Amino acid sequence: MTATLPDPAGFPGCPVCAYVLTGTARLCSDCAGRTLQPVVDPHCPVCSQALAPGRPCGNRLCTLPLQRRGFSRVDAVAVYSGALRDKIHKLKYEGKSGWAMIFGRLLVGWMESHPERMRGVDYVVGNPTHSGRQPIQHIEAIMDAAYTEDVTRAFPLSPLATHRLVKQAETPRSANRTLDEKKAAAAAHAAALTWTGDTADIMGATILLVDDVLTSGSQLQHVALRLRATGADDVRGLVLARVPWNG
Questions:
Q1: What is the mean pLDDT of residues 172-194?
Q2: Dihedral through CA 49, CA 53, CA 54, CA 55, nearest 10?
Q3: The pTM is what?
Q4: What proportion of the chain, given as a percentage, has pLDDT over 90?
Q5: In terms of pLDDT, which residue wins out, 176 or 127?
Q6: Dist. CA 234–CA 121, nearest whole Å
Q7: Element (H, E) at 87
Q8: Residue 13 φ/ψ, nearest 5 degrees
Q9: Averaged pLDDT, 101-123
């Protein structure tokens, strides 16, 4: 008699799930998709913000021409709410590193589920945190986990410091700042980044830029503009969570 396998515990029950160590990216992504708040339709094709029927997106970035916006579009795994918001905070501000593995699986699971969005991507890179960030460099931890979870090497994720953006210096934070201060912080963040590989690799490349949370998109805009100025042909975004935003 063959024992049946247990059901996944469901997000955010991941730490006690029978598959916490052995689960595949697709298994965890499908499981989490049952409880995460999805990005609904209609939504903005540029920033993934939910739209009222018949109303345009209120994000000013979405009205800019591509050469001023930098990124062509930003997709989100889910909406920034409930358990997802809580667990991002656990990783980001409390250093609960086990969630990096789960988030890495969610990202790879999204990539597997959206091959049309991954078509033509040359590099998948994280929007970096500075090297001295405490309690953890959460984006780097997530990206390392995503590389590990992509067991078939289906996607152009890079190990360790190969073909990555890095940030060696701390810059002003944008949280709880005025709009002008947020813009200045985003510009300073982008200016502090360097590419670890040969910059010639970026020429003509399509880059998928990964972050944890998207609000207005100002920081991703400045990083995307920096990459395009370096020679990238297209910069797309992918975030774990899209903040519901009313402009």
A1: 90
A2: -40
A3: 0.95
A4: 86
A5: 127
A6: 9
A7: helix 82-94
A8: -80, 20
A9: 97
Q: CA–CA separation, 222 vs 201, rounded Å?
A: 20
Neighbours of 182 (CB within 10 A): 19
Is the pLDDT at 247 greater than 70? The verdict is: no
- Structural tokens at position 220: 């991703």
Q: Which domains does the chain have, with CATH numbers?
A: 23-51+59-242 (3.40.50)
**Would you place residue 54 in the very low, low, confident or very high pLDDT band (cuts 50, 70, 90)?**
confident
C-alpha neighbours within 13 Å on the C-beta side of residue 171: 20
- CA dist 85 and 79 (Å) reads 9
d(CA 123, CA 201): 10
Residue 104 to residues 23, 123, 229, 236: CA-CA distances in angstroms?
12, 16, 29, 18
Query: Any idea which residue has 């690799």 for tokens?
Result: 201
Tokens of 78: 């889910």
Structure tokens at 190: 């982008």
Which pair of structure tokens corresponds to residue 65? 């021409």
Match 């989490």 to its residue by tokens. 32
Show the tokens assigned to 237: 């975004």
